[in-house]
UniProtKB/TrEMBL annotation:
Similarity-based family: Belongs to the TatC family.
Topology within the bilayer: Multi-pass membrane protein
Region feature Disordered, mapped onto this chain: 262-299
Role noted for this protein: Part of the twin-arginine translocation (Tat) system that transports large folded proteins containing a characteristic twin-arginine motif in their signal peptide across membranes. Together with TatB, TatC is part of a receptor directly interacting with Tat signal peptides.
Protein's name in the database: Sec-independent protein translocase protein TatC
């Protein structure tokens, strides 16, 4: 009986054939999807309580005459169709599964990229997950905190005498959209720090982006938040602050690298020191052939 083939040793530089990359991607995607599915199944048993928690920011009208008691608008929560409640259960559970499984899929995403890093850069894997998960969850919670302040502003545009009918799907859609957008927006500093620690971009260059980053964050905040100005500012200010915090960390990391190895981190617009000491020049070399007076042809 032939002996079983020995398992190939891993390349210390993280190099592997394309088929190995695809196989690893498939395995990590399978683990991430499995984690989301498991948490989604568990969340199905608590879907109604979660649904009540999500729709709580909506100011609901108890009676028709309460629609405009003191200039503040309210709405009536509705679900249209026989299959709408069940479909909402599935959507709520999937949202919870995606958010609560974020430690797993963030770790798998970073693990897929880590083999391409140097050995001294792989030690940040756990730190990335440990920081990235709280940032994502905090961004999602911040979106939920903002909704009770944004929904009344949206309802204030209603016509006088009109009754607002808001479906559960509408509340769920805006909650999911804002939670995911805020969660990924709060990941911006982590991505920048990862790029800096990986040697892709320097802190000096990140600082040079500050005008474009501030404008870009403002445009993103205006596009993802409801129509009121306060919601836009509430998102722009913390994300901008996190950007400058990440830039400061990158600058400190660059300073540490330069102190340890002055030539390790040269910017794209920086040149290494050149040795300009003049050297002696040898005399002319005789390339002639014998019998032709030093010339290399018959001239």
């Amino acid at each position: 009986m032939p002996k079983a083939a020995r398992k190939k040793a891993k390349d210390p530089e993280g190099r592997m054939p394309l088929t190995e990359h695809l196989r690893e991607l498939r395995n990590r995607l399978a683990i991430s999807v499995l984690a989301v599915v498991v948490i989604t199944i568990v969340a199905l048993f608590f879907a109604k309580s979660i649904m009540n928690f999500i729709t709580e920011p909506l100011p609901q009208c108890i009676e028709l005459e309460d629609a405009d008691p003191a200039g503040n608008r309210c709405a009536t929560l509705t679900q249209a169709g026989l299959t709408s409640p069940f479909a909402t259960y599935i959507k709520v559970s999937l949202m919870v599964g995606f958010v609560l499984a974020s430690p797993v899929w963030l770790y798998q995403a970073w693990g897929f990229m880590a083999p391409g890093l140097h050995k001294n850069e792989k030690k940040y894997t756990r730190a990335v997950v440990a920081v990235g998960v709280p940032l994502f969850l905090f961004g999602a919670y911040f979106a939920y905190w903002l909704l009770p302040r944004a929904i009344p502003v949206l309802l204030s545009f209603s016509a006088d005498g009109a009754e607002n009918l808001v479906s559960v799907d509408d509340i769920l859609d805006i909650t999911v959209r804002m939670a995911v957008a805020f969660g990924f927006a709060f990941e911006l500093p982590l991505v920048l720090v990862m790029l800096n620690f990986g040697g892709v971009v320097s802190g000096k260059r990140m600082l040079g982006w500050w005008r474009g980053m501030v404008v870009g964050i403002a445009i993103f905040a205006a596009a993802i938040t409801p129509t009121d100005l306060m919601s836009m500012i509430a998102l722009q200010v913390p994300v901008t602050g996190l950007y400058f915090l990440a830039t400061g960390i990158a600058l400190l990391n660059d300073y540490r690298r330069r102190r340890n190895d002055p030539e390790a981190q040269l910017g794209d617009d920086e040149a290494s020191d050149l040795d300009l000491t003049p050297s002696s020049i040898d005399g002319p070399e005789d390339i002639g052939r014998p019998g032709r007076g030093g010339y290399d042809d018959a001239t």
